[in-house]
Amino acid sequence: MANTVLQRAPTAAKKPPVPRPDRRFYAQTQAFGRFGIRWFDTQIMPKEHFHGHIELNWLTAGDMDYVIDGHEVLVPSQRLVMFWAGIPHRTLDVRRGPGGESKQCNVYLPLDTFLHMPNLGKLTDTMMGGGVVALPPGTISTEILERWYDDYRSGNAERGDLLRAEIAIMLRRASLTGWDELLPPWIEAVTPTTKSATPLRYVVAMIKHILEHLNDPLRSQDIASVVGLHPNYALNLFTSVMNVSLHKFVVRMRLIRARALLFEGNLSIENVAYSSGFTALSQFYEQFRNAYGITPHEMRAHYLHQQ
Asked: Assuming Cys at both sites, which of 32, 55, 97, 124 could form a disulfide with 62, CB separation 3.0 to 4.6 Å?
């Protein structure tokens, strides 16, 4: 009786989402993918790939074998499985449920959005450390994922905002109640005294430093010194792993913070800029318009108009 409900997936023939200002930014770089939800028949992937998301997978039935940068992981059904998709990954094998059917729902949470989420603590460290986790049973259901999918495809901006808020609350709850590790974090910490490490380890250490010092001046030589690398080498390493320059990454994380501050409280635009780490108001306006296609004033007015 339950299988009939669990294997039901929404049809794709629905109105596509209305373009949002964020789409302008995400169209300009491969480092951060746009938010998305997809339902499909579980399938083997012909080759590994990577993209700029924290990915959440849900199987209605059966299970599947993943390989994530050489580490094999068994993904069960009826559990929301979460990992950093910036690490090369691939589905190796699929074992379907009764009747040979299995549907998969993937939620693609942009990496920049995830990194900006406050109070996730060890969950953030686990994701950036290459860990794969299964959130507790009962965290989500097929029915809720179907509703999320309908919200995503509705084209309604307010429903989309509520959807993202629900995901943030879900992850915040998981950070407090815990999770099951399907793959423990394996990307170890790097210090200036580390003699050698993989590119991914160096980059994760630089990202952690950036997030912890976003309001401070962040010179490339200071970031490179955190991992004991020559600045030019560190910059090239960061770009090769993240598909975006270190400077653009810093600007993006500051813009994400600024966007959130625009909708929280009554900070002036100037205070929003400085609280986000921008040292000049003109620079903030230029970067904001380049990313979102509108000014901070226009975005705030647009958001308030929809309330």
From this structure: 97
> Same domain, yes or no, for 67 and 149?
yes
Residues 8 and 132 reside in one and the same domain: yes
Task: Tally the domains of the chain.
Answer: 2
Tokens of 148: 């999320």
Nearest to 176 by CA among 114, 212, 122, 109: 122
Q: What is the extent of the structural domain holding 57?
A: 2-183
Residue 159 per-residue DSSP state: H
Give the per-residue pLDDT at 265: 64
State the pLDDT at residue 32. Answer: 66
Task: Please compute the mean of the pLDDT values over residues 288-297 and round it to a whole number.
Answer: 88
Q: Which residues lie below 8 Å from residue 111, measured CB to CB, with a gap of 6+? A: 31, 32, 33, 52, 53, 54, 84, 86
Residue 64 within a domain: yes
DSSP three-state, residue 179: coil
Query: How much is the pLDDT for 102?
Result: 87
- pLDDT confidence band for 13 (50 / 70 / 90): very low
- Confidence tier at 14 by pLDDT (50, 70, 90): very low
Tokens of 42: 């579980």
Q: Is residue 191 part of a domain?
A: no
What backbone torsions phi and psi does residue 215 show, to the nearest 5 degrees?
-80, -10
- Helices 199-212 + 246-262 axis angle, to 10: 40
pTM value is 0.79
